[in-house]
Design goal:
- The chain is an alpha/beta fold and 306 residues long.
- It has one domain: Ureohydrolase domain (Arginase, Chain A), CATH 3.40.800.
- The protein is built from nine helices and eleven strands.
- The strands form two sheets. It has a nine-stranded mixed beta sheet, with helices on both faces. Strands 3-4 form a two-stranded antiparallel ribbon.
- Helix 8 links the parallel strand 10 and strand 11.
- Helix 8 runs parallel beside helix 9.
- It is globular, with a radius of gyration of 17 Å.
- 53% of the residues are buried.
Length: 306
């Protein structure tokens, strides 16, 4: 099996590019484009995956060093079965084609017995990513985001970045949705909040996490469940994550995010992860890229700790 991707340059921290898909435990790929809105060009996110790969390039030879976030080295003995498959050949305006490429790549990785990690792209890219996880269902989604994304449509488009969880809720294999870090206007009117709550979504605000810790979210994750974490970079506070579409005060800290990742992996099975909506041109000093890349390292570590 081969994925229709371009070769990464460089590969993400700790990953190989020559590992056969059938031998990989974790497979990372970039999905530069999703489903565009007429008034929004997602081209600003097209280089996200490559920027995050480069963010840790200087540390690429240190995967056997002790990582205090993980409590161990990421790859102590050189045996980490982590493949960087490169970027999908998406295009800016082809929403249906982009969705099919993402869904097919995700399904192929799952069929090979590996856990997929996707770097988007805007928040429309998780819709086909979640579709491709259907064989793993029933699935619990832990969405880490400033916004709940339950719009039925926006400007006539049902698969854009304001409708991600609404579309996920319609998928037969999605059993539970836990939404963490929600704050501010939250991309919702009263109707969207009521629809989400009526469906059974658990909305855990950023304020709740600040007051009670990540246990406020983990309490809603069933023990032993198959879980996807989908992380929009705007879930993080803009003091440490400026490179987003909609910065919103009061976001999560880096430590809260990695504690949440570790907590999900300890309580359940973290079978997939995506990180989305990082805008490279808004990262003036590179610190936001470093933060996002380190979040990805924690996801890889949580998936491979066994």
């Amino acid at each position: 099996m081969t994925l229709d991707t371009t070769a990464p340059d460089p590969a993400f921290f700790g990953a190989r590019t020559d590992l056969p898909l059938a031998e990989a435990d974790v497979v990372l790929f970039g999905a530069p484009h999703g489903t565009p809105y007429p008034e929004f060009s997602n081209e600003a996110l097209a280089g996200t995956a490559d920027v995050l790969r480069r963010a840790l390039n200087e540390d690429a030879g240190w995967t056997d060093h002790w990582d205090f976030d993980l409590g161990r080295p990421l790859d102590a003995d050189g045996g980490l079965a982590f493949l960087d498959a490169g970027n999908l050949r998406t295009t800016p305006l082809d929403g249906p084609g982009n969705r099919e490429r993402i869904r097919a790549a995700t399904a192929e990785i799952v069929a090979a017995g590996a856990a997929p990690i996707m770097i988007g792209g805007d928040d429309s890219t998780p819709i086909p990513f979640i579709e491709g996880l259907a064989p793993l269902g029933p699935l619990t989604i832990v969405q880490v985001d400033a916004h709940i994304d339950w719009r039925e449509e926006r400007r006539g488009e049902r698969f854009g970045f304001s409708s991600t969880m609404r579309r996920a809720s319609e998928m037969a294999h999605v059993e539970r949705i836990v939404q963490v870090g929600i704050r501010g206007l939250g991309s919702a009117r009263r109707a969207e909040v009521e629809i989400a709550e009526d469906w059974g979504a658990r909305i855990v605000t950023a304020r709740a996490v600040h007051h009670a810790g990540v246990e406020a979210a983990l309490a809603h994750v069933p023990a032993g469940a198959n879980c996807l974490i989908t992380l929009d970079c705007d879930a993080l506070d803009p003091a440490i994550m400026k490179a987003v579409i909609a910065p919103t005060p009061g976001g999560l800290t880096y430590t809260q995010v990695i504690d949440l990742i570790a907590g999900v992996a300890e309580k359940a099975t973290l079978c997939a992860f995506d990180l989305i909506e990082f805008i490279p041109e808004r990262d003036r000093d590179g610190l936001s890229a470093l933060t996002a890349a380190r979040v990805l390292v924690n996801a890889v570590g949580a998936m491979t700790r066994a």
